Amino acid sequence: MAKHFLFSFCLLLFTTACLAHHSELDRFNKCQLDSINALEPDHRVESEAGLTETWNPNHPELQCAGVSLMRRTIDPNGLHLPSYSPSPQLIFIIQGKGVLGLAVPGCPETYEEPRSQSRQQQQQRDSHQKIRRFSKGDVIAIPPGIPYWTYNYGDEPLVAISLLDTSNTLNQLDSTPRVFYLGGNLLEAEFPETQEQHPQRHSSPIGRRGGQQQQEEESEEQNKGKSVLSGFSAEFLAHSLDTKEETAKKLQSPRDQRGQIVKVEKGLHIISSELQEEEQQEEEEEREQRHRKDSEREDEDEDEKEEQEQRQTKHSKKEEEDEDEPRSHESRKWKKHTEEKKRESHGRGGEKQEQEKKEEEEEEIQRQHSKGGKNGLEETICSSKIRENIARPSRADLYNPRVGRISTVNSLTLPILRKLRLSAEYVLLYRNGIYAPHWNNNANSLLYVIRGQGRVRIVNSQGNPVFDDKVRKGQLVVVPQNFVVAQQAGNEEGLEYVVFKTNDRAAVSHVKQVFRATPAEVLANAFGLRKSEVAQIKYNGNRGPLVQPQSQPQSL
Questions:
Q1: Which ranges are annotated Acidic residues under compositional bias (predicted)?
Q2: Who has greater pLDDT, 207 or 239?
Q3: How far apart are CA 75 and CA 156, in angstroms?
Q4: How far is CA 417 from CA 16, 411, 454, in A?
């Protein structure tokens, strides 16, 4: 009996290992790419206040990288409904600004409305979890299974590109991209190519009463929305949430034709310290402008009075005063203007320095936490920083004033990425600027063009170019791990793009850097070069990967 059990257990382990190995082989076989294409969105879903565009996850390039992508456009006062995904997400804000809220299980509702003084308004005060503000150039990390919502409070459309790492180990389902919505009625599937097929109910000969009951159930099923709450009965929801059945039916969003992004007519009023500070700053700027205009009017009135008094003096003195008066007038005006500028710059500078100091302290705390051990206390999702701006010029990791700049965000600068195993890179190349040949040591990468146009070449292990073409705004190019890639901006305008990487500490090797790290004798014997030629390829030109363009653009 024991031998039979042991044999069955070994057979089970062997079968599991074989299936796992077969699965890994299938995944690796998907990266046998002879050519790579620049991809554009294949599907679009329009909503009341925005647009969702997705790439077909069955593209061989995306199958190799094990990811899916979507691009959302949210109109001003547009609200993207709460949703979550089993796959970790990394979002880059291309345009606009807004706020984002997470509903993290176990975290307290630390944002509360102030207590009202009026007895008539003594209602239940609203409280919720932290609200985070974001703007153009921010990278936002969303953990799997955590519902989040997004609201555009700006004056222009909010555009964001999102990566779903469907092959991440945190995703315990398959590689099919899934988005679960808590509310709303999904008029169309965001990823129709992988839409799950549900078996239809077959009618059974159960008589008139049974057939009528079945038709009523089917009619009620069709009238429900397509959110996760629609799968429960209204009666059960009302009992579970301790509310009225009529309210529970509204939660299921029946016959709602607004889609996943809805319009907030009078704007969204939420509790946010960052938004309050921004509003106060705008009000202070408006007051300063009004004060400046009033002071300028007073100066003009005083100048007119002085001129009238000076006209009543003697003719000889009047001529001298007329010569000096404009200078004194300009000097007084310049002096007053300078003092106001100093006060204004001091006030703004103090606020800016205080805010930067606060952000640096938070980043330092996060770095210390990332270096320290895991005791379950100092690193929690409730207090984790989830966004980092990588588009600011001051944030650049590599910079060449004639070529452009590169900035990265990984688990060292944003510790939450360590759990998601993702990172990102922002690249801005000026006209004809070159990002010299390089490769990602430990990650697949996905290049999305934000603005401009340029040329990209990708070379595989056989030395064959699998991609050599121009790219433009809105296109996506997948660069598999270790494939060598080089980019050059166009002649008429620069090239701006963001790169998502499937490793939280993605490492990059540059050909020039490899040559510098290799002994001259090795290079001479490997390539049949003279010492002078070795010295040229090692020490001529820039030390970094950003190469200054020549007078005429060169083919990659």
A1: 275-286, 297-307
A2: 239
A3: 7
A4: 31, 5, 30
